[in-house]
Specification:
The protein is α/β, with parallel strands linked by helices and about 250 residues long. The protein folds into two domains: about 1-80 and about 165-250, Rossmann fold, CATH 3.40.50.300; about 90-160, no CATH class. The protein is about 35% helix and about 25% strand. It is built from ten helices and ten strands. The strands form two sheets. A six-stranded mixed sheet has the order 6-7-8-3-9-10, sandwiched between helices. Strands 2-1-4-5 form a four-stranded antiparallel sheet, covered by helices on one side. A hairpin with a 2-residue loop joins strand 9 and strand 10. Helix 4 (about 120-130) packs antiparallel against helix 5. The radius of gyration is 18 Å and the shape is globular. It binds adenosine-5'-triphosphate (ATP).
Length: about 250
Amino acid sequence: MTALELVNVYKNYGGPPVVQDVSLSIEEGETVAIIGPNGAGKTTLFGVMAGEHRATKGTLSFFGRDATRAGAKRLAHRGVARTFQVARYFLEKTVEQNLVIARDAHRSRYRNPVSPTPRPEQSITDALEAVGLEERRHQSSSTLSHGDRKSLEIAMALTQEPAVLLLDEPTAGMGAEDIPRTIRLLQGLKESRGDLTIVITAHDMEVVFALADRVVLMANGRIALQGEPAAVRDDPMTREIYLGNSFEADAS
Ligand SMILES: Nc1ncnc2c1ncn2[C@@H]1O[C@H](COP(=O)(O)OP(=O)(O)OP(=O)(O)O)[C@@H](O)[C@H]1O
């Protein structure tokens, strides 16, 4: 079944479109990486998929239901969870408290997310296990390493039991030692939850090649090329678009 479908999507911020005529169909259980040079429109497209940006033209549907005007909140309730390039959580809370906040905010039961009374349950334990943070459960989030913080953010998304997980630059700002760990975490997630649909934006080709079933290359707001990772890597158009960029070096 198709999890996410965009048809002829345009987005502009008042000026010329920064996403133009993008049509993309992502199947349930598929992992798709969106790559492209700076300013290609990846983050904007991602925002459209998350319901944060409303498409100027075109349609978005989620598991066959129109979601063009759903907005971020409703899409979250329908099973879309996302992480951000810069992780968002409460530094002064423990790992577990942040997970409880994320879960309860999602369920809209929680009225005052700033002073939680943690009430852990299975979804919290499952999320901690999925990212390997069980031992840090009661640790203050401010004491976590950069890699652990990214794991926390992914775990927060998992407490929402998403059908579609949108990961914006999951290894951004990480040191070389944390990148393989995050890749392993996401590979583990793909294996244990075969029906989870994952969309990643990434500059890091190590991440793209380790995880993606399909790569979508964007340039100037349009999809320039898409296909299996190796086919996209080896296509002359990719080299042309990335001329002067580090793509070749990163992908080898
Ligand atoms: N909120 C905004 N208002 C106006 N212009 C914007 C806004 N967000 C992005 N843009 C412009 O839209 C274009 C596409 O930006 P976008 O961030 O989507 O690209 P990107 O491929 O994600 O780039 P990067 O890899 O640098 O994050 C850029 O020219 C950018 O300056």
